[in-house]
Amino acid sequence: MSQVLCTLTSNATFVPQSFLYPASFHQIFSCYADVTNIVRNSGNGIYTLTGLNLTNYLSQNSQYCSLSFNYAGWSLLIVYEDSSLNPRQVNIYNGFKVLSNIGGLATSININLNNLDVSSTSNSKVGFLVWNSETINYTFPQFEENVKFNNNILSNPPLNSVGNIFNSTNSYTNSNTLWNMDLDYFDISPYISIGDTSANIIFESFDDRCAFQYIVTSIPNELPDATVEIATTNFNACQAGFLEVEFTVFNTNATDVLPSGTPVSLFLEDNTGNSVYITTVNTTQNIPIDGSETLTTIITVPTNTASPGELFVDVNRDTAGNQPIAENNKQNNTDSLIITLPEAPPNPSLDNISQCGTPNETEINLEEATTNIDKNLYTISFHGSQNAAENGQAEITSPNLYIPSSQTETIFVRVEDGSGCFSTGSFQVDLCRFHKLKIPRRWLPAKKTPPVVRQFSAFTKRFRNQ
Fold first, then answer.
1. What does the DSSP assignment read for 141-197?
2. Which one, of 103, 98, 107, 99, lies nearest residue 20 by Cα?
3. Do 186 and 76 touch, CB atoms closer than 8 A?
4. Residue range of the domain that includes 332
5. Residue 98 is assigned to a structural domain of this protein
6. Which among 16, 18, 189, 367 is least surrounded, fewest beta carbons within 10 Å?
7. Is the full-model pTM beyond 0.90?
8. Which pLDDT band, with edges at 50, 70 and 90, does 343 fall under?
9. pLDDT per residue over 178-220, tens digit each?
10. Are residues 11 and 123 in the same domain?
């Protein structure tokens, strides 16, 4: 087994604490340093701390000895990862506090433990390191020592019974000969609730003088981890501004099920660059670890939406902007996509058609009205009503051979691009009537005439001259 020598240097952070007994200050202190790289590089072995010789300082004041503060000690706090264990949230609260019933110090210390994220209460623990503990077993209430977690007295008898907590014990080795210090932990599962983000711990000592170094909480952290990906978008009914969005919610890197009803909120970027809340939908089933659920929703696109602009999807975000589901990582819940709003084709420029003919007989080529439209960009269809054109129904199937049923008709045109956006317009079809000419009798040919064709030719010429 290797041996590692650690020297206390100026890189350590010192936390002094003084108490008055009976009329002069007695200073005690603690310090801490991050030795992660040393331990990581050296591994398992025997570690020795040097540079903590206080002999000269203690010899100048004999009262340190009479108060049982004439000693020094050190500890090594290790947080490690084991992939075979379920995840846990470990919080370290480092500092230095002294309590005593003498010297003007308080007989209790009240500490709030913040930044908790309780998703499961089973097998939750709190531990601490306390200096200057004794082995005296107090039998009188006025001399009791207790630890209260959320106002509940902690104990683990017979090692640490109620009223006698700071008693030179080590809960990890079950030893009661850890002189001048306590290294203990307690089950706090009954005293916390899912969703808690803080807790309170109180140390009480009505006779002993104790110095508290650090507190550690270890709470199971079996949580889902919601992420989202936008799969597809499709503009539905271009003129109405409907956008169909398909997205998938995942529960990867998780240790628990993502519950049904997890909210997913959608946002669109407006013309000022701000994200505007649009709607919230919820997952419909429990998503297992490494599972997913695909959802589709149709949203109404506001008129001030930027184009191009950002579509933003945020899972575990409700209508109030809160994140109601506890999860491993709340920083990976979003996905976005740049979208361009489709624009309807311009209103078509159409020509009216006028042609001599007879209803129900004369054929009309309706395509002559659309010569101003680029047929390489747009698809054109002809309809008998505005409603049919808007809905793409009742299309005139042979527009180049169209036979009007009346002398004057209105034809409606639908011009559509490849995205489903369209515009409509209309034009008139007029059939000119044939008029019978009344020819004066003096223009009529004699009864005995050459063949009619030749006379007709002569007559036509004469008629035009007239």
1. GGG-EEEEETTEE--BTTTBBTTB--SS-BTTTTBS--TTEEEEEEE-GGG--TT--
2. 103
3. no
4. 226-339
5. yes
6. 16
7. no
8. confident
9. 888 899 999 999 999 988 889 999 998 876 678 888 899 999 8
10. yes
Q: What is the mean predicted confidence (pLDDT) over 313-334?
A: 92
Whether residue 86 sits in one domain with residue 22? yes
Tally of CB atoms within 10 A around 81: 7
Per the listing, tokens 């002094």 go with 16
**Are 7 and 78 contained in the same domain?**
yes
Choose one of 176, 192, 220: the last residue of a domain.
Answer: 220
- Tell me what the mean pLDDT of segment 224-234 comes to: 91
Q: E-strand spans in 114-251?
A: 125-131, 145-149, 152-153, 181-187, 199-205, 210-220, 226-236, 242-251
The domain spanning residue 332 has which CATH number? 2.60.40.10
| Rounded distance between C-alpha atoms, residue 414 and residue 390, angstroms | 7
Q: Specify which residues 50 forms β-bridges with.
A: 7
State whether 388 and 328 are in the same domain.
no
Give the pLDDT band of residue 153 (cuts 50, 70, 90): very high
The CA-based angle 353-358-360, given to 5 degrees, is 95
How many domains does one find in the chain? 3
Q: Is 179 a member of any domain?
A: yes
More confident residue, 46 or 139: 46
- The tally of CA atoms less than 13 A away on the side-chain side of residue 232 is 7
Largest CA distance in the chain: 163
- Indicate the residue among 304, 339, 374 that finishes a domain: 339
Q: Choose among 210, 267, 212: nearest CA to 75.
A: 212
CB atoms closer than 10 angstroms to residue 314: 22
| Residues 265 and 404 occupy one common structural domain | no
Mean pLDDT, range 274-290, rounded to an integer: 96
DSSP state of 240: G
| Tokens at 276, concatenated | 């505007």
Instruction: Check residue 455 and give its pLDDT.
Output: 43
